[in-house]
Amino acid sequence: MEFRHLGRSGLKVSEISYGNWLTHGSQVEEDAAKECVRAALDEGITTFDTADVYAGTKAEEVLGRALKGERRESLEIFTKVYWPTGPGQNDRGLSRKHITESINGSLRRLQTDYVDLYQAHRFDHETPLEETLKAFDDLVRQGKVLYIGVSEWTAGQIAQALKIADEMGFDRIVSNQPQYSMLWRVIEPEIVPLSEKEGVGQIVWSPIGQGVLTGKYLPGQPPPEGSRATDGSGGSAMIARFMNDDVLTRVQDLKPIAADLGLSMAQLAIAWVLQNPNVSSAIVGASRPDQVRDNVKAAGVKLDADVLKRIDEVLGSVVERDPAKTQSPRTRP
Ligand SMILES: NC(=O)c1ccc[n+]([C@@H]2O[C@H](COP(=O)([O-])OP(=O)(O)OC[C@H]3O[C@@H](n4cnc5c(N)ncnc54)[C@H](OP(=O)(O)O)[C@@H]3O)[C@@H](O)[C@H]2O)c1
């Protein structure tokens, strides 16, 4: 495994992180979830990403049990707050009340005294940014949270938060968690340049396009059983945006590129996001331990300019680049 700094902070994270969205507490039984975490640890992954909302809070519990007994100092545990975790008006968003309650629930479920990174899962248009940043800063002072990050915030929102933090002396955001893959490059025009200047690192989600970039979904054919595209508990709806024949055909055309390099398709996809120096880590998901063992081999892989050009030529117009696609709900969900 290789390690990178989380933005300009002193914290080092594994280039490849393990995330448990849609799997732990949902698509995948607990034994398989624990085997995936074991495989991740054995392969040198030290960084684990979850969220209070995943599987209605069950994903944090599963991860907490799977990591129990591991040396805490050797792990970086990331979680998030924003999406609803209960029926109440205040069980969502980034108010001081919900942030305070949510971190306590996350720490209990994860069976830890602190999380390494606490992330605002979206921007909350209904809470003053000062209130959110002060509440986060208080958690840092209390030792419940070591670093603060955001997810899917626009460049303007990140810039505004950094300005307030600097003016008020609050802890600064060190990371952003956006979707980023060969197919989804919307952070490149605005968020990456700002982040490079401000020392914010990207911890990117769905680097394999939720499995699509492995090439296992064939155009015009039903998806393989047991894959995310057949997962009725939520996965199939989430992956739907990439499940069209234009995307799937072009992904098949990436196979010779991966083969020439002696890489699996998943490794090529993960290596691609890691070529961006503003990326601190690629968070991969897995439903089986062999996937984790395949994916980690992307750490440290260098892709030269010719390879990147060939990939762009193959994918052509199916690549999404519009920065306006980075959005948070206008009102709280
Ligand atoms: N901040 C946010 O808003 C946000 C949103 C989404 C995700 N995330 C984070 O990002 C993490 C990763 O997201 P993701 O799960 O969509 O990422 P991904 O790594 O692009 O997709 C993972 C899925 O692809 C399939 N897969 C992975 N490796 C494979 C391999 N080698 N061969 C074949 N299939 C393989 C598996 O699904 P099947 O086996 O079921 O097909 C696996 O669950 C999440 O766990 C979460 O921590 C954050």
Radius of gyration, whole Å? 19 Å
Head-to-tail CA distance between termini: 38 Å
CATH superfamily: NADP-dependent oxidoreductase domain
Write the element-wise H/E pattern from the N-terminal end onward.
Answer: EEEHEHEHEHEHEHEHHHHEHH
Domains counted in the coordinates: how many? 1
**What is the CATH class designation?**
Alpha Beta
> Structural class of the helix and strand makeup?
alpha/beta
Which labels suit this protein?
single chain; about 325 residues; alpha/beta; TIM Barrel; eight-stranded parallel beta barrel; two-stranded antiparallel ribbon; 12 helices; 10 strands; about 35% helix; about 15% strand; globular; binds NADP nicotinamide-adenine-dinucleotide phosphate
Summarize the structure in short.
The protein is an alpha/beta fold and about 325 residues long. The chain has helices at about 30-40, 60-65, 95-110, 130-140, 155-170, 190-200, 235-240, 245-250, 255-260, 265-275, 290-295, 305-315, and strands at about 5, 10-15, 15-20, 45-50, 75-80, 115-120, 145-150, 175, 200-205, 280-285. β6, α4 and β7 (about 145-150) form a beta-alpha-beta unit.
